[in-house]
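Task: encode each sequence below as structure tokens.

Item 1
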Amino acid sequence: MTKAKGKKPQRSGSNVFANFDQQQLQEFKEAFTSIDQYRDGFISEMDLKDMWASLGIIQDDKFCAEMLKVSPGQITFTAFLTFMGEKLADTDTEDVLHNAFACL
């Protein structure tokens, strides 16, 4: 997942799409689409099981159900973006990481 140089996603009210640039939105859409195996616009327990299986990992129903608990309702693309934005909010920017490793 590519992050814009020097920019961290910023919260701006309820418009989660404003937190990302076009490239990031496209990458998140591709990720969401690859997880949404049934192409119904929602990530379900079966979608998660199928995603894990495509990675060669067999997960049980309980594990996938726990993953779905991150959202109070169904996981739509907007809910997925919100979740990813929250996860990325506490990460360092690409520039910070590059500079940290350049010192080694």
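Item 2
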Amino acid sequence: MVIRTMKAAKAKRSSKPTPMKAVVKNAGKSKRSVMKLKRLGRGALSSALAAMVKGTGGRKDLKFEQAPKAATNTMHQVPLKERAGYPLKFPKGSVDPKNWRTGSRCGSERGNKPVIVDFSRAAWLPDDWGQGVKATSPIQRADIKPGSGGTFTVYMSPDGKTFYHKPAAEKYAGYKFTEEGGRNGQIRKAQLQGVQAMQVVRAQIKELEFTRGQNVGVDPDEVLFKLLTPKEKKCLPSKNTFHFCIVSARRATSLSGIQDIFMVQTQFTEAGVTPTWYVDEASVKDYRRLGLHAVVGGKLTAARNKALKDAAKMGKACVQASDDISAWEYRHGKQAKERTDDAMNKAHDAAKRYILSPVAAARFILAKMRGADGDKKPQLGGLYPLGSSSRTFAGPEFVKHNFIIGDFFVVDKSKVLFDEEMTLKEDYDFTCAHIKAHGSVALPAHDSRGETLLQCWRGS
């Protein structure tokens, strides 16, 4: 299982041998050994919209790059109503955003241009105003060289007037625009962009071409479960077997935090479960205000332990996840014929990709744990945090005595708790405690034929 970090500009292949397998972390951004696509960040859809406006604006004096296919695909799929620039309120007489156009007083060549609802939104924009993007007109001066502009962000009043700058918009509205007045729009922006970031990552995993109107969902659970052994299939648990927990703190008031929160929450609710958020006491009301099922967990290790104890009281396995995972990816393909970088990279690149829900991933891991050979079963299963996923295509079915990162793991029936005196590397200590108590942990990267890789992405 692998977590990739979306904050990194690239995911590099490892050039040094390592006895472990898997890959690491963060939602939504790599050049491909692992992926031939550049990882896409928060502004991917806005950039794709700008590229589309430039491409359809009729200007031949522009130099610009087309947006990545994954971003363009997702951008076209998102309805106008689900974009941050769409107004939250529509007073009587408001113009429908699909009919937005600039004023015509500049003449047919420079005016009356279509305005497309933007994926972003100014922090001070009132609820009944909107934000859009329009194509600019060609530069008339002969001494100006072709540039990379071509678009302009504009603000649309309820009655459809176009404004290019905040002071002019305020003058027309008759009052000052403030960030407090724009807060509802910013919260909605963060919620929408969280879900959209998830869609962009899914499109990247699949390397999809543009297919209008088709959102990228998870693959059927049965596809994954077919790869379990007959013994493991008998141990396959239902989703009701688990207590799903997300450990977080102080993120429900920042826009970037809200975006990540909804990116993760959506993936659990899509799978038919409502996770419990274990958060710091000072923030619990903020999380609940977002509609989340949040309880006070305390600091990191205390929150982790409360989640473990709550699951034990319910008689359930405990699943813990970080608050910024953007996708769970599964790869199925043949194992490398030899343990060389070229062979492992080739096997990795040839593998078929599947997108999973966190619920399916947890069920798969627990089936592996409960179906393990021997009387003493591993009670902890999860992810391993290296940066080279291609190396997972050479090696044994399980790694049983190695570190499991705290970003996504499953605990079955164990009294082992986190050391609450630790403030760093608590998951290292937790892994060691499980190995000491139960003899092993479970890191399911390959099936018995060496044909599978399960991994997840983190996004920020």
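Check on item 2: The first strand starts at residue 3 and ends at 5. The two ends are 19 Å apart (CA to CA).
End of task.
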